[in-house]
Specification:
237 residues, alpha/beta, six-stranded parallel beta sheet, 6 helices, 9% strand, elongated
């Protein structure tokens, strides 16, 4: 049976470096690599190994699923063959949870009754659905420049409730009482300059833990130019 160096039953083994007795009993060919001054001691230690007690016959409890070392080594067969203990079986990883599709909400503009602009057109919605696999929720509106049916034809769902949306798109400021908590919004908030008339909106954004992405702060990394802006005709409107 396999035994640690401290338990090999030969006084000669005490003259060998600690790892040698166990190494040479397991790997006789390793004798060639033993320094010359230890070879005679090795030979006597190896010959004395025949006096070891016979190992017990292997049984169902001879091995466990965990490899054993030292004094807890697995028992061998009567002919001296030492079977290799079975390796522990790695657990099968669970299948990763499937990422749910992105849900985009398009809110109805309500700052004034003349507002007809939209943050995304039906063509944009179609690309979101077909290219990204996103779900798009559009609040109904009778004033929007594109009718609701155009959004339905593009693959959107027209409904009032946007609470399932991950991202909500708009054009102008969202009334503070209509902000949904813990959502991501994109719109022109007119707050980054510290405009006094919109500080209550900014406070509501903070209180409701809203992630606000303001179009005015979306700028080119090369030259700092704004990427989303109104034309001069927006001021006339």
């Amino acid at each position: 049976m396999l035994m640690p160096a401290s338990r090999v039953a030969s006084p000669l083994c005490s003259r060998l470096p600690a790892p040698l007795p166990l190494l040479t009993l397991l790997l006789p060919d390793a004798a060639r690599s033993i320094p010359r001054r230890y070879r005679s001691a090795y030979a006597r230690a190896a010959s004395s190994a025949v006096a070891f007690p016979a190992p017990p016959p292997p049984g169902p409890a001879a091995f466990s699923s965990t490899p054993m070392l030292g004094a807890h080594a697995a028992a061998g067969t009567p002919d001296g063959h030492v079977p290799t203990p079975p390796l522990p079986v790695a657990p099968v990883p669970k299948t990763a949870a499937r990422t749910p599709p992105l849900v985009v909400g398009v809110r109805r503009e309500d700052k004034n009754r003349w507002e007809r602009r939209v943050p995304v057109t039906p063509d944009h919605v179609e690309r979101l659905v077909l290219e990204l696999g996103a779900s798009v929720l559009v609040q109904p509106s009778t004033r929007r420049v594109f009718p609701d049916d155009k959004y339905r034809a593009a693959g959107a769902t027209v409904q009032e409730d946007l609470s399932a949306a991950d991202i909500i798109l708009g054009v102008k400021e969202v009334p503070a009482d209509l902000l949904l908590p813990d959502k991501t919004y994109l719109f022109f908030s007119h707050t980054y300059k510290g405009q006094p008339y919109n500080m209550s909106l900014l406070r509501s954004v903070l209180d409701k833990r809203v992630r606000l992405i303001d179009y005015e702060l979306m700028r080119s990394p090369e030259n700092g130019a704004r990427l989303v802006l109104f034309s001069r005709f927006a001021g006339y409107a």
